[in-house]
Write a structure and sequence with these properties.
By secondary structure, this protein is mainly beta. The chain contains four helices and 35 strands. The N terminus is likely disordered. The chain binds zinc ion (ZN) (2 copies).
Length: about 475
């Protein structure tokens, strides 16, 4: 009985299966298509139609370089009515949309000015406006924060070829968006730019990207990250590991993990709060340490910044209370504000001579003992942070201001570079234990007579001095006094 049932069942499956095959739409056309020789088009795309049926082929967006007319089909496109613009100096910006069309083409020029930006929240969805497609001209370089956030019907975004910056949350909550092509002009993608795009499957990130916010693809459930040792990366076919986007919580509390060495960009806040990391090998193609990267990594003891890095962002190492020494290489040209705020155990710091310092590098770092930095960095320290300093080497700066060393009781050694042409009166008053080593061979005219009242001063002499006075020289990079 059982066997019979089985036979009936398998027969039924076979018949049903055949019936299914029979129901498949035929892949063979009922006639040989006769393709029209000219393109059909609307305001957005063109295609070739069959004369004998509804079939179309070669459908594509219009190819507009810097004109309104498609170079493929010859159609002249028109900007969609209802897009609002404003002129700011020599350019125009998109401010909003009040039209009825669900497909929107943005003008390349407005009142003779190039349209260069889509302003923040310009298309953020209000009420029942439901745009499905937006075509952005090549004149636009900037998409503001939240510009298309909440456009829940938006399926098609043509970004043009000149976009450099995509603002925070620009496409957040665009739940119908499945893909988007970023031109290789994009340098910056803001925080949460594609957050909650629940149907987004992948985005190719161009090599031009240098700045990447956090939670860019948060809650993108279908998104395919490139995973390496449990960490999520995005990139392109040449470098799938271009950007490290986030550290999953399962890994956050590990004391060490390996990063892919091809990574050039870290998302902001990347390791912030990774409480157990003690050290980390950074990829030697990394270009920046963004804002808050290691904030609150309270066990982080040592880290080497590779010489590929060009900038260190705001608060990058703030509250790294176990960090004892840091060397920021000369490749770094920009250092943010409060980079080392509340690094209570930081003792030895070397900062690049020729970087731009955005604000106070330190704040509440009471245990710095050795500092090598431009004078401006030292000068911006509160006296509280200078109290325990034993040696200071200035690697750039032209002026040392009055009373700069007030309260530096522990200081025993100061090196002043030859770039310092001015020292104000009383600059070294109050540092009673220091020896001052000048890289010049005698007092420059710009150093006030009362620049130093208390400390012994040594001038530089490469060869054994023939005159009286205090002299020193470098031997293997160390200070050696001529006795
Ligand atoms: Zn046909
Ligand atoms: Zn066309």
């Amino acid at each position: 009985m059982k066997r019979f049932l089985l036979l009936v069942l398998s027969l039924a499956i076979t018949v049903f299966g055949m019936a299914l095959v029979g129901c498949q739409p035929s892949t063979q056309p009922s006639h040989e298509h006769i393709w029209e020789t000219t393109y059909s088009s609307d305001n957005f795309s063109h295609w070739i139609k069959c004369e004998g049926c509804d079939e179309v082929k070669d459908i594509a967006d219009h190819n507009l370089q810097n004109s309104d007319t498609c170079s493929v089909c010859g159609t002249t496109t028109v900007p969609t009515e209802g897009v609002t613009y404003k002129i700011v100096e020599q350019v125009a910006q998109v401010t909003g949309y009040t039209g009825d069309s669900d497909k929107v083409r943005i003008a390349a020029t407005y009142q003779g000015k190039p349209v260069t930006a889509i302003n923040s929240y310009a298309f953020q969805e209000y009420f029942d406006k439901k745009i499905t497609a937006v075509y952005i001209p090549n004149s636009v370089t900037t998409i503001g924060g939240g510009a298309f956030s909440g456009c829940a019907k938006l399926e098609k975004v043509s970004l043009g070829s000149s976009i450099t910056s995509i603002g925070a949350s620009a496409f957040a909550d665009c739940s119908e968006l499945t893909d988007i092509v970023l031109p290789n002009t994009v340098t910056s993608i803001g925080a949460g730019a594609f957050a909650n795009c629940s149907n987004l499957t992948s985005v190719s990130i161009p090599d031009s990207v240098t700045s990447f916010g956090d939670i860019v693809f948060m809650n993108c459930e279908k998104f395919q990250f490139n995973v390496y040792e449990g960490l999520n990366y995005v990139g392109n076919s040449n470098n799938p590991y271009l950007v490290l986007t986030d550290i999953p919580s399962a890994i956050q509390f590990n004391s060490s993990f390996n990063l892919h060495n091809d990574t050039k960009v870290f998302a902001s806040n990347l390791f912030s709060g990774c409480g157990e990391i003690t050290t980390l090998d950074l990829p030697d193609s990394l270009i920046a340490i963004p804002d808050c990267t290691f904030m609150q990594c309270q066990e982080l003891k040592t880290i080497t910044i590779p010489s590929s890095v060009k900038s260190v962002g705001n608060f990058a190492f703030s509250q790294c209370s176990a960090l004892e020494s840091i060397y920021v290489p000369d490749s770094v040209t920009s250092v943010g504000t409060q980079v080392f705020e509340h690094c209570e155990n930081l003792k030895t710091v070397t900062l690049p001579a020729n970087a731009t310092y955005v604000g106070n590098v330190f704040n509440d770092c009471p245990n710095i003992v050795n500092l090598t930095a431009p004078f401006e960095v030292f000068d911006s320290l509160l006296s509280f942070d200078k109290e325990k300093m034993e040696s200071v080497t200035f690697n750039s700066g032209d002026t040392i201001s009055a009373y700069s060393f007030n309260g530096c009781d522990a200081l025993t050694s100061v090196i002043i570079p030859s770039s310092v042409t001015t020292i104000e009166s009383h600059a070294f008053d109050g540092c009673n234990n220091a020896k001052i080593y000048c890289e010049v061979d005698s007092k420059p005219d710009g150093w006030k007579n009362s620049w130093n009242n208390d400390c012994p001063v040594y001038y530089y002499s490469e060869n054994e001095p023939t005159t009286d006075g205090n002299y020193w020289r470098y031997v293997n990079g160390e200070v050696v006094i001529w006795e």
